[in-house]
Amino acid sequence: MNQPVKQPTIFLAVSLAALAACGTRGPQAGPPVESAVIPPNRIMDFNLLYARNCSGCHGADGKGGAAIGLGDPVYLAIADDAAIRRVTSDGVAGTSMPAFAQHSGGMLTDDQIHVIVRGMRSRWAKPDALGNAEAPPYAAPSAGDPKRGFVAYGVYCSSCHGPDGHGGKASSIMDPAYLALVSDQGLRTTIIVGRPELGAPDWRGDVPGKAMSPDEISGVVAWLAAQRPQVSAQVVGGNR
Fold first, then answer.
1. Measuring CA to CA, which residue among 188, 180, 196, 187 is closest to residue 228?
2. Which of 13, 73, 92, 110 ranks highest by number of CB atoms within 10 Å?
3. Which CATH number belongs to the domain containing residue 49 in this structure?
4. CA pair distance 43, 49, nearest whole angstrom
5. Which backbone phi and psi does 225 adopt, to 5 degrees?
6. Are residues 47 and 116 in the same domain?
């Protein structure tokens, strides 16, 4: 008569079999390939790169935050890839825009910056963003006239920002901290593109039926730049 196998004996046999099976992988066996950690400089996913490096200031999905929305089709219509790549790579000295490229002290490779710029363009740019309008140039072709700029400010901007820029329906644009941390290009870009998420129209919408001319835009920028505290004078540069 056969005797039943005791439970400890069965457990030992199963354990030995499992050990033998594991042993066939060899001493060099490691975790599955899919569980390997991707080095930061090899990440090429736009959503992840944008979320970690851009969204804190420019908002989720490029909709704006502390800085302008990079997903604004008007912004993408006036700023070409070279300009966006340059600012992303090198930042803007004296402003809140840091350099992200490794060659400028940042953490991103040139390929990763290319992914960000290409991703912005493919997701958010719209061919008809400007309609039939001819946009002012992204960069000023020449310095503006502050006196003419003050007159233009009165026409296009004072109804919201107040007659002297210290605020009204919209915030003050004479705050020393603001002027000290924004470049001339940053001012120009904001005037042209607006801040739609804050209710500020682009250069076509301040006065219905009367778009700002390139000279008027340059003049307003020159007038605002002249209001900067002298102790915080800026290098004229690009800030988006």
1. 180
2. 92
3. 1.10.760.10
4. 8
5. -60, -35
6. yes
Q: CA 172 to CA 122: how far, in whole Å?
A: 35
Residue 6 resides in a domain: no
Tokens of 63: 């909709």
| Residue 207 DSSP class | B
Structure tokens, 56: 């804190």
Task: Tell me how many domains the chain contains.
Answer: 2
Residues 183-230 pLDDT 10s: 999 999 999 999 999 999 999 999 999 999 999 999 999 999 999 987
Residue 64 CA to its chain's centroid (Å): 8
Query: Token digits for 160?
Result: 């919201």
Residues of the domain holding 181:
146-232
pTM exceeds cut of 0.85 = no
Residue 173 falls inside a structural domain: yes
Q: 17: burial class by Cβ within 10 Å (0-12, 13-18, 19+)?
A: exposed
